[in-house]
Design goal:
74% of the residues lie in helices and 0% in strands.
């Protein structure tokens, strides 16, 4: 049996088991993600086919385990980087609207990270709903709805920071100088 035939037989014998292993560790991931990880594992196996052990399944599990751990670490690094960038970047909403910058920053701090992100994409990156949909990996209508809801929540947060309008119309408390 040739090396290619042996590898194909190994692939057929262990592909399903490897996919089950990956699916259990990705907890709720789609079939495409599971198959992508399995493909990467078998690509590594192909590259290292000269040193594969006689029983390759445990070795394949080890490769998958390391790949998943590397992906988790990379994902955590990406999230930390995005958080740092959002903290140090100029506020997109304050730049896009003519309002008091500290008030906008306070209101933005009250929003969820998802709301801040969609507002930043619209205001800072100047993206429309179709482009936001590509970034967020959702439909155009979902992106439009997310943007609309984030804008509503921002307005509500801004309103919560401002004093109620009727308090500005009330007379101040009488002081001894003003009492007739």
């Amino acid at each position: 049996m040739s090396t290619d035939d042996a590898f194909a037989a190994m692939y057929r014998a262990h592909h399903a088991a490897l996919c089950r292993y990956v699916a259990r560790r990705l907890d709720g991931a789609g079939d495409d993600e599971v198959r992508d990880v399995a493909a990467e594992v078998f690509l590594t196996a192909w590259r290292r086919r000269a040193v594969l052990p006689p029983e390759p399944l445990p070795w394949l599990y080890g490769v998958a385990r390391r790949m998943l751990a590397n992906e988790r670490r990379a994902s955590a690094r990406r999230h930390r980087l995005v958080d740092r960038l959002l903290q140090h970047a100029p506020d997109p909403v304050a730049a896009a609207v003519d309002v008091d910058r500290p008030a906008v920053l306070d209101a933005m701090d009250r929003l969820s990270p998802a709301d801040r992100e969609v507002l930043a994409l619209a205001a800072w990156e100047q993206l429309g709903p179709a482009d936001i949909a590509v970034v967020l990996r959702c439909s155009r209508s979902a992106a439009s709805m997310r943007l609309h809801r984030a804008r509503v929540r921002l307005r509500e947060a801004m309103a919560a920071l401002d004093p109620p309008p009727d308090s500005a119309l009330r007379d101040p408390e009488p002081t001894p100088e003003r009492i007739p």
